[in-house]
What we know:
The protein is an alpha+beta fold. It folds into four domains: 44-56 and 299-362, conserved putative lor/sdh protein from methanococcus maripaludis s2 fold, CATH 2.40.420.20; 61-70 and 216-290, Efflux pump adaptor protein, beta barrel domain (Elongation Factor Tu (Ef-tu), domain 3); 80-104 and 181-212, CATH 2.40.50.100; 106-179, Helix Hairpins (Orthogonal Bundle), CATH 1.10.287. It is built from six helices and 23 strands. It has helices spanning 2-24, 29-40, 106-141, 147-179, 225-228, 358-362, and strands spanning 49-51, 53-54, 60-69, 72-76, 81-86, 93-94, 99-103, 182-184, 189-193, 201-202, 207-212, 217-224, 238-240, 253-260, 266-272, 284-290, 302-305, 309-312, 315-321, 327-331, 333-338, 341-346, 353-355. The strands form six sheets. It has a six-stranded antiparallel beta sheet with strand order 13-16-3-12-15-14. It has a four-stranded antiparallel beta sheet with strand order 2-17-22-21, with no helix packed on it. β18 (309-312) and β19 (315-321) form a beta hairpin. α3 runs antiparallel to α4. The longest helix has 36 residues, at 106-141. Mean pLDDT is 82; it is low at 1-42 and 293-298.
Amino acid sequence: MSSVAFRFFSPVLVAMATAGVAAAQPPSSTSAARDGAAGEARPSSALATAVVAAARDGTRAAYEGTVQAVRQTVLAAQVPGAVVDLRVKPGDAVEAGQVLVRLDAREAQQAAAASAAQVQAARAAQEAATREYERQKQLFEKRYISQAALERAEAQYKAAQAQAAAMMASAQAATTQSGYYVVKAPYAGVIAEVPVVLGDMAMPGRPLVTLYDPARMRVSVPLPQGVASRWSADTTASIEIPGLPAERVAPVAAELLPAVDPSTHTQELRLTLPAGLAVRPGSFARVWLPLGAQGDRSAAALLVPAQAVVRRAELTGVYVLSPEGRPLLRQVRLGRRIGDQVEVLSGVSAGERVVLDAQAASRVR
Length: 365
């Protein structure tokens, strides 16, 4: 009897014991991880944010440029020939009309001499035809020859005259051709590059000497379209060139080219430097431009803290707080960095709030 009762109540006792053991055990690792993840995600109200603000008056951004010569010429060969005389080297100062390079012109000189001899022969034939024509006219006046004979003499005279003119033109062309074998400086300047040596074969179009005028220099800087659209004639710019005594110099003239580079989507800004600066073409230059006009907030650049920018593969963005207070990742296009802030060309509006801690914003669900 007692044995039967024990077997009847044993399932109840086992269930009670199992429940007690389960209550005594610690939470499982899965539930603990879930609770921990929920504890890490901070509410959006606790995220540190910053307001997208327009650039302050007087805030300036730097854009990298290159020093160029306003007048720079690449002198190339017009005729083929070996370089037989090289009179300059890089860095030499030359005067206008100074001989820089001579090519082997013996063949051209011989052709010019042959043309000169042909001119002499043509002139002699012209003189003979002229005298014959004068005699024929006198005979015609005395009725010794016919009208046809006079006309033949006149035709021979005109043909000889035309032949002499053609020979003279050919001789002048040969002389001009021989002048191509001597390369002279078109203006006073400094030799920047000499890519040939004695004995090299010069071909038409091959550069021989690069010359520039150091009296007229400028800085070329590519500007993003957003910055170029805010450029005006009264925009104040300053130029910083390493090595100059002055920290910054003001340009004497500025020109924004209308064409946009399709590969970089930039416009070239040319700033003419004051005369007398010891700069060379190709030198690095930094151009400082104001980000926004005085009192013009619609044209002012937008700035966000650099730490708020998120870069994931090819995506560049920031977390922007929605009206409900939730951080939303938004793609942006950035401009220049100014201190601890960065210019935003598109993607956000003034007054919006961006999250400073991108990792914390990504955990908010």
